[in-house]
Amino acid sequence: MAAIHTLGELRQARLHSRPVKQEIRDNLVRKLKAGEPLFPGIIGYDETVVPQLINAILSKHNFILLGLRGQAKSRILRGLVDLLDEQTPVVPGCEIHDDPLAPLCSACRARVAREGDDMPIAWMPRQSRYVEKLATPDVTIADMLGDIDPIKAAQAGLNLSDELTMHYGLLPRANRGIFAINELPDLAGKIQVGLFNILQEGDVQIKGYPIRLKLDEQHVELQANPEDYTARGKIITPLKDRIGSEIRTHYPVTRQNALAITKQEAWTDRTTAGGLKIEIPEFVREVVEEVAFQARADRKIDKRSGVSQRLPITTLELVVSNAERRALSNNESIVVPRVTDVYAALPSITGKFELEYEGELKGAEQVARDLIRSSVGNVFTGIFEGQDSRTVVEWFDLGGSLPLSDTTSAADVVTQATGVQGLRELANHVGLKSNSAAPVVASAVDFVLEGLYAQKKIGRSDERGYSAAEASPRRAPRREEPMIDESFQIPGSKKKYYN
Ligand SMILES: [Zn+2]
Question: From ligand 1's centre to the CA of 476, what distance in Å?
Fold first, then answer.
């Protein structure tokens, strides 16, 4: 292909371009035969979305991806672009990327007639053959299809209906490529009709002038509000009728898949950006993921707008940043995020969901804090099932407290933890080794404390850090028992005892 520079050479090579849908289909068939991976980086859709996509492409359908925010719809589209030929011959400078062997626009047809076999051709990479548009109510016919320029026409002495006078919109510019439109129901009915006409009949009226354009495109719609799409009257019926397949996307079904997606998407390897080595404990990853799962199930959060997978992705990034900040200011050699760092990631959580009325009463921040706490509780219970935490809880019940915060250095956390009987032993349960670095141990200790706090076995406040739980019916009377006399020693060193 690199050797072909002119129309004559192209003709000789008999490189006839296929219609886009045929081209995508051919490349898919080839990949399927060769057992090559399809849609790389798309996790958890192997048995649901991907087979439906393959069928739609094999059928040469236009299709719609129907699903909530953050369900990899854009990534699927990028995967579709990978199914185009790497390079495609075009008439250089043509706004609608005409095929040199079969140009649509009159300018290119004139050029081919004038220059013949000597006409130079250009090669367009597949990444340039993809146009995406977010439909909004203010999108006009001119934006989508194009406009005619009467002045240009008058100057050139041309007829207004000649395409030479046309300023092309997005749809013609996607000719010979993939055109994706987001939120089609938001387009005015008039534009939808225009869209339908050009797709179906190959002509459209602009300012009353008929324009003929037989475009060749693969159409994909993306729809984040499934209810809008299915609502009667939102999309004109003939346009909806042109969609061959309706494919529903979904959030990760298993925590395993969700973890894998976040691991792939979140920016956490920062050594190349001058950062320290980062070690993210698995339980921190799980807590972050659990926040998204809990949010999706929470009735205080609006289900129709969903909770994007970008929530755990950006949350993990902030969690790592908070840990990075701590490590840098305490001069530590590795960055190990803690569960408490998830609270520092509130700015990436509160903006990622819409609240129902009940949630609004509580406020986004409180809703998010509650989500984090119950997520920690869930993950902690799963990992520490059957572990005895009574010694640790008793230490606090007897009046002990640990004034820790997310800025406390790892060394300080470890020292303070040593003063609490049973705490280090309990923390070992997450797989600590005798030579684990202080930041790793500190993170495990933090997890235990946050876990016990989530289970309401101990309390936590900004002023005192971790301390005994608010008087519970079971423990309250015990506190008043006179057996805790002056001579009773709080286990561990006395200077950690702040009450
Ligand atoms: Zn052209």
Answer: 83
